[in-house]
Amino acid sequence: MTTENSAPVSGSIMVVGGGISGLTTALEAAEVGYEVFLIEKEASLGGRVSQLKHYFPKLCPPTCGLEINYRRLKDNKNIKVYTLSEVQKVDGKPGNYTVSVKTAPRYVNSNCTCCGECAKVCETEISNEFNFGMDRRKAAYLPHNMAFPQRYVMDPAMSKDDREKVKEACKYNAVDFTMEERTFDLKVGAVVFATGWQPYDATRIDNLGFGRYQNIITNMMLERLASFNGPTEGKIIRPSDDKAPETIAFAQCAGSRDENHLPYCSYICCMASLKHATYIRAQYPDAKIYIYYIDLRTPGRKYENFYAKLKADKNVFFVKGKVAEVSEESGTGNINLVAEDTISGEKIRQTVDMLVLATGMQPTCAIDKPAADLTFDDEGFIINDFSKGGLFAAGCANKPADVVTSNQNATGMALKAIQTLRR
After folding, report:
1. Over the stretch 356-373, which tens digit does the pLDDT of each residue have?
2. pTM of the entire structure?
3. CATH 3.50.50.60 domain locations along the chain
4. Helix 62-75 to helix 20-30 angle, to the nearest 10 degrees?
5. Which of 26, 55, 118, 423 shows a CA-CA span of 20 to 30 A to 312?
């Protein structure tokens, strides 16, 4: 029994989502002494940041931020990490929640040394979702080079023969196919949802041809192509023929600021395309880059200066106009696009080697709503109710945001969670 001024039933905090916002929330709470349960549905922490080549404001590689956080995580005994895990239900009230968590089997235990012998003998291949299906990987795999925990995963799709092979190949008795899915309850005083975002499904944008034409890709696919641990080891090439592109167009607001898709601005897309232009220019100094936009949003002096440098580049062209339709040039795989220049009023027809769709961010909760007493806006973002307390949203679960803003917000949500426990 508790009174209004006594300690809550539970002094623990749960953070749902192990991306940059979830990591920040968990670490900020744990480093001031609170027990934290960090729940991540993927096999590794890191979220979207782990898929980037560089991120703003300093254009750091993911290793810059993630490795520091992983070190802090290893050094802190207050954090318990559950990967391949999802929250099934949240019951209770602020200070006293019961959370049901379901964990899928990894089929690999803590003996794993990441020697890779299991992958060498495994012949079963699966689509590599980390690279958005642009390549395939073995069914015995390390999620990526910065995976945390550094432990292999055995995909359930692995053939029976391969299961025997990988088990025999493992010298450390780390492979265990007897592992089963399990569900358990955790008692916590507050829950922070840092469930992040999904790239908007570009196949739903009928007029922009994604999925029909091979040389139309999304901004996150380009990010993976440019990354040294991506499907092409950092080489930006056309998917159809591995050709070095000489002309590349970007279609901004692909599915964003559109009442038929995402009605809001996703905040990150303009800066992402400007960053991608620097990737291309670094590899192909003579390539011509065309950025079709409604209006460019570069908030803050640093971002505006970044835009000004690209605007001065003689091989980067900014066209104020939205790409309306696309088609494929017969025999070449080149992309024909049609847009209207809103300044001159002229219709533009252009052929490029490759088209990049700057798709927006959709909150994961719009696709998979948590079974908890949360309030959502029309787009699926969680609305924080600070008067009620107990359940909060951090980072892109709450609003479209870049890495810096997400981290700042996550620190605030850690404090809100702590305040719930201290009432």
Report:
1. 999 999 999 999 999 999
2. 0.95
3. 12-104+181-197+362-422, 201-359
4. 30
5. 55
